[in-house]
């Protein structure tokens, strides 16, 4: 049995296939393309490597798997040891490919909240034409806190900096040097002291035991009246009932959620009717951008070099940490 | 009769009033505040200077007016010589105060168009939760052309540059050195050669004889299939019937108009039902931002110094040119 790379890519094109074939051939691998996960389950025993949008079932059934390179950034579903027949199987993700698209989503939703665009949309939809009473707000002079200083948080900070906010504070588990786009980086242990000075809270965290429920009811109360919250990480990070309460009471002026629990969000879920909520159906990391697609491939090719040279994976995930 | 400055400010606060009184007193002026234009008509003969949100009628009735400092950026309504009893009356505008808020509107609407946010809004409004078929687009790699390289165009270019577009071309009447945020500045005579290489066309032009109808049916056809158009200048710049056709035929992928003809846009106007159109009711330059308000005052104070020193106004408008 020759060495094989199994590939399941939602957005496979002839060009991408040629690139993958060339990279595989360079290292003596054959390629095997599956149209979807279902067709790969129980059918991928010859794959030493799997690359792409694989389901848990595919991973669980691949007996000889040594490395799964996942095309998503969030890999919480793939961090349980018992999923793998080979306990030493490597896992890598595509964190680094989504910063561009998710940062654009973040700036867009931040401005939509600050400028009350949901209300203006509704006014136009009902064929009106008026200036809303009350005020709008601006990124200019805004105090921004970003939970998570990885690719997404950093790509956002670099873009939003051009709007002259008062300051951008990055918050991460432990303080390490971060991108100069952040005016300051602080440890998550200090979060409770940072929240009262935050006008816009942006959450871009992976789903780990540490991040579940991190925006609790108590912490929401620490945000100043009229603050805004945006979450593009995982829905588990937010106490959703508390968020709906904070929006409906007016304590928070608005929130944008691209991730929720559960997904899809039921049609009658209370979050649907919360005041000033901007919901999107987990599309911030939309994979239809050529940039995102090519970057995902390039990161795989980079780590294929590392894998074949016996070096550590650049995009490797510590299954215990979850990122 | 002492020297008097008449003031009509929509967003007058005690603080703003104190600032205006202090600036006036410094130069030996009394101040007179009118709650609105109606109360000032025929009642402002003692005003040498008028500052604020004055109607044409106020200006026409003020017999001893020597300078009207207008709080709006677009002053096309105030450029006719016959409006003034004193033919030498000076006019200045507040162009320079609106760049921040209008640039935020421009980035927001650009991203909403590129990311198909109108369709996502509708999907969520009807309680759905899906990824739309087809693709979204990005500012990353986008070829952007900005008509008008004044405060608004420049503030936009500075912000959008952080999103890594392929290039930002500024277009103005005559080529002069512009802000380094523009990769290139070209003369409007070259517009027909620039349009075919434009993915996103942003229009921030004053209403002058030269700009009326500048985006004609013929020029829209020069834009590549799938291009986007955003207008925040004046509605007269766009052939609206041609725009509706270009949207409905799919030649243009989307358009965002904050200014239209007429305003308010009638409920049954064909633009209301054009495909992928994002309408806002002339609120891009929303004056509720403290930044915009204070900047407008500061610019007036700056020119009050110039006026009293017999120097040219920094924000003076050439009534013949219209800006």
Short description:
The structure is a homodimer of 323-residue chains. By secondary structure, chain A is of the alpha/beta class. The first copy, chain A, has helices at residues 14-26, 37-40, 56-61, 99-114, 117-125, 151-160, 191-194, 217-222, 240-248, 290-308, and strands at residues 4-8, 30-33, 47-52, 67-70, 90-92, 143-147, 167-172, 184-187, 200-203, 227-231, 252-257, 277-279.
Which features does this protein show?
homodimer; 323 residues; alpha/beta; Rossmann fold; 2 domains; five-stranded parallel β-sheet; 10 helices; 30% helix
Could you walk me through the main structural features you see in this protein, from its secondary elements to its overall organization?
2 copies of one chain form a homodimer. The first copy, chain A, is α/β, with parallel strands linked by helices and 323 residues long. The radius of gyration of chain A is 21 Å and the shape is elongated. The model of chain A has no long low-confidence stretch (mean pLDDT 96). In chain A, the strands form 2 sheets. In chain A, strands 8-7-6-9-10-11-12 form a 7-stranded parallel sheet. A 5-stranded parallel sheet of chain A has the order 2-1-3-4-5, covered by helices on one side. Chain A has 10 helices and 12 strands. The two termini of chain A are 33 Å apart. Chain A has 2 domains: 4-97 and 289-308, Rossmann fold (3-Layer(aba) Sandwich), CATH 3.40.50.720; 99-279, NAD(P)-binding Rossmann-like Domain (Rossmann fold, 3-Layer(aba) Sandwich), CATH 3.40.50.720. Helices cover 30% and strands 17% of the residues of chain A. In chain A, helix 1 runs parallel beside helix 10 and helix 4 crosses helix 6 (151-160). At the A-B interface, helix 4, helix 5 and helix 6 of A face helix 4, helix 5 and helix 6 of B.
């Amino acid at each position: 049995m020759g060495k094989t790379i199994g590939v399941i890519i939602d957005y496979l094109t002839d060009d991408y296939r040629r690139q993958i074939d060339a990279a595989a051939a360079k290292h003596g691998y054959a390629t095997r393309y599956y149209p979807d996960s279902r067709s790969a389950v129980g059918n991928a025993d010859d794959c030493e490597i799997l690359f792409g949008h694989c389901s848990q079932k595919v991973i669980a059934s691949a007996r000889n798997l040594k490395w799964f390179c996942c095309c998503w950034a969030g890999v919480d579903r793939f961090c349980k040891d018992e999923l793998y027949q080979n306990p030493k199987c490597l896992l890598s993700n595509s964190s680094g490919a989504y910063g561009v698209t998710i940062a654009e989503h973040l700036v867009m939703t931040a401005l939509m909240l600050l400028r009350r665009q949901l209300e203006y949309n509704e006014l136009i939809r009902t064929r009106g034409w008026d200036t809303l009473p009350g005020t709008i707000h601006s990124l200019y002079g805004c105090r921004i806190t970003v939970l998570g200083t990885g690719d997404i948080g950093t790509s956002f900070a670099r873009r939003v900096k051009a709007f002259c906010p008062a300051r951008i504070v990055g918050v991460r588990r432990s303080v390490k040097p971060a991108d100069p786009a952040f005016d300051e980086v602080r440890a998550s242990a200090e979060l409770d002291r940072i929240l009262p000075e935050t006008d816009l809270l942006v959450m871009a965290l992976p789903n780990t035991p540490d991040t579940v429920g991190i925006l609790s009811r108590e912490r929401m109360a620490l945000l100043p009246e009229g603050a805004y919250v945006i979450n593009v990480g995982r829905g588990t990070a937010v106490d959703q009932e508390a968020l709906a309460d904070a929006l409906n009471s007016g304590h928070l002026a608005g929130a944008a959620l691209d991730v929720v629990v559960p997904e899809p969000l039921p049609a009658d879920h209370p979050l649907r009717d919360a005041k000033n909520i901007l919901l999107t159906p987990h599309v911030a990391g939309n994979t239809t951008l050529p940039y995102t697609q090519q970057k995902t491939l390039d990161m795989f090719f980079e780590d294929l070099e590392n894998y074949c040279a016996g070096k550590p994976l650049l995009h490797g995930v510590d299954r215990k940490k979850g990122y």
